[in-house]
Amino acid sequence: MIRRGVLVLTVLAVSVLSLVSGDYPLSIGEVFGALTGTGDAQFIVTEFRLPRLLAGLLVGAALAAGGAITQSLSANPLGSPDMIGFTEGAATGALLLIVLTDAGTGETAAGALAGGFLTAVVIYLLTYRRGVQGVRLVLVGLGVSAMLIAVNSYLITRASLRDAVAAQSWLVGGLNGIGWEHVGPVAAAVAVLLPIGLVHGRRMALMEMGDDAATGLGVPVERTRLVLIAVSVGLTAFATAVAGPIAFIALAAPQLAKRLVGALRVGASALVGALLLVTCDFLTQRLFPSTSLPVGIATGLVGGLYLLWLLIVSWRRKRA
């Protein structure tokens, strides 16, 4: 509980830092005045910094919560939505609309949602054989993800130069240009889906002991698994629709949260995911102020270091 409190305070501290710093530094009093409609910096805070911050918090929380659910269901730290195809499916849906039509932001988001859910249905049907087993889910998901990556690359090669640049920029994932119109959909998704994931958290923990044990303890295993997969896909698809396929948050945040609170938990993972994304976005804005570097590049770097750390830990355990 204390560690969760520290985590919440850290998220608040980074959030305040994001609001007060920038090309036009503000005091905490000026930010508070802007939020209450009495300050001179209202336009800067409410039209630029606040929607970007909220989108970062919500997208990070959604990706990490979705990752915690699929990692728990697959009993594998690599079983996150961006490894087993959900994120790539959302990217394929968005790319199809970008390349084949003159899609705007709304249409791109709708394509990402449709692609994410359709990919999840295909993976579920391919995986289902007297239930969905974790190893099968990971292996089928990795195969589908590899095929979708190839499809996405092909779509970019067939696009015009303008569409190819737009598609490649979207595929990196970022929060540049985020406004209130982007915050609403992901906020609604998190408000509806995250509580469902939290409510099913105890069942999810029991299912980590195995289907037979969970069934013996009264858990409707297959129905719970289906609900949790739907929650994970929904969170991932909405987050991807808003910010693009931001890498490694869904993979790394749940495992970092597990080391903080001692178990794989949806709520703690969401907090760590929000903290990771807003911290990476803050650093990219402050360290590279003139380039508008997409935050997806920073999360990719963090994810690479995380995978390297996982390999070192695994190697040391085998030698011990």
Q: Can you describe what's shown?
A:
This protein is mostly helical. It has helices spanning 2-20, 28-35, 42-74, 86-100, 105-127, 134-158, 161-172, 180-199, 201-207, 211-216, 221-243, 249-261, 266-287, 295-319. It is globular and about 60 Å long. The two termini are 32 Å apart.
The low-confidence runs, each spanning 5 or more residues with pLDDT under 50, are: none
H/E element sequence: HHHHHHHHHHHHHH
**Structure classification:** mainly alpha
What summary fits the major beta sheet?
Answer: none
Q: If you average the pLDDT, what whole number results?
A: 85
Strand content: under 5%
Q: Rough shape? A: globular
Distance between the termini: 32 Å
C-alpha Rg (nearest Å): 20 Å
- How many strand segments? 0
Number of helices: 14
Q: Which percent bin holds the helix content?
A: over 70%
